[in-house]
Amino acid sequence: MQASEIWGERWINNALPMARTYMEVACRKQSLVCLAADRKTMAGLNELLDQVGPYLAALKTHVDLIDDWSVESWEAFCTKAKSMDLLIFEDRKFADIGKISRDQMSGVYNIRQWADLVTAHLISGQDIVDGLQAGWNDVGRNGGVLLLAQMSSRGNLLSPDYTDTVVKTGSIHDGVFGFIGNGSKPDDLKILREKVGQGKLIWTPGVNIAIGDGEMGQRYGAPDEAIRAGSDCIIVGSGIHKSEDPAKSAKSYAEISWKALLDRR
Amino acid sequence: MQASEIWGERWINNALPMARTYMEVACRKQSLVCLAADRKTMAGLNELLDQVGPYLAALKTHVDLIDDWSVESWEAFCTKAKSMDLLIFEDRKFADIGKISRDQMSGVYNIRQWADLVTAHLISGQDIVDGLQAGWNDVGRNGGVLLLAQMSSRGNLLSPDYTDTVVKTGSIHDGVFGFIGNGSKPDDLKILREKVGQGKLIWTPGVNIAIGDGEMGQRYGAPDEAIRAGSDCIIVGSGIHKSEDPAKSAKSYAEISWKALLDRR
Fold first, then answer.
1. For residue range A119-131, what is the model confidence (pLDDT) as tens digits?
2. Is there a contact between B127 and A154 if contact means CB atoms under 8 Å apart?
3. ipTM of the complex
């Protein structure tokens, strides 16, 4: 079965090359799982990748909190990730003006050269999306911007009005790959999907096979429910890397997510 | 004259060690000028510092867009900046949750080790301020967080309501040094100062001796008017580094800003 058939309206309505790349990767890997790989050492990151890479569609990184980062070790890590056919998603939360954000794609980390996806807040205005896309363009690469539409952190300022503005602006911007939503409440996610329409992708943290489990009172939603409610990728952290058998967990998340996508069609 | 006397209510009402450090530096340097040092090479940054360092109270950096950055060259640069008695202000615009932001203070750039000030958006909630302060605390250093209360970029989402929430939350948070406001309109700045009260510092871009001048239609305000309206530091970029004689320009900005502070008492 082709990606276009499996993803249906999403495929038809999102022509951003990176969006289609993701949809194809998800089909090849039979997984809608992105691992939140919040490790502070290259060894930790490599260990995770070796264990669970086969079951992932994407890997979410924070390059700027790795204490022993080097150009060479990172290049090797990214090469390995690519050989496992997964996208690299730098959760940088860009939040400056367009011109500065474009420059922040370069520098020592040179994010534009290896990241397929990045997150951005729309707080500074939509020029940030153009700036980030220009960053990729500067090195002849494609990429996609995920805008923060919702967060679950205490006291966050992404009010319903703010979310609506982000969705309204982002839904019609060519450089936007999709949105970060909250996967813990399927009903809220359905509402978000209605607002977003069928084109842009929604990626959601806040899911766990063990629903309701979570550190410090954080609540989780079920991965299959999130996908049926309109999520296109589940971002999983501790549910995989803190489990006794990360590979087995990752495989379960992949199977559940893939089955939910097929059910959703 | 003592800093406490010159800064008056601001000194009395802001006990954050880094806030008082800034007020003292400004008095020693007789300057309320922060240079926006947006250069992409270490040589460019060093050249700027050598030219205008004596006239600055602070230097605003974007460490992540310097193409030839290295641990050693940055350490030398910061040591030179400190020897010129100025604060280093990394305009990172942190915008993640508290825990991640704390970790983002480390990594290869190790911002906590050399930055005296950083910017943050309050979008993720006030835990970001605690996270950043914990970052400095992890290495036994003091620092201050400047929250984005206003931006001037096209289509930005810092609505009056958003600004009010940031000011209300930030004004009573011990870890907040102050706010980034907009220096181009003194009347708006007066309103912001009223909302902030007398404690927290307000730093303002958008000022230029040549009022109304600016790239792409950007409007500037007069530096002395900004300070009399309640700004405590003027962030100047092209007005200094694009002038024919940067040192002479920086000296003018310093003199104007210092005189305005003395007038304001």
1. 999 999 999 999 9
2. yes
3. 0.95
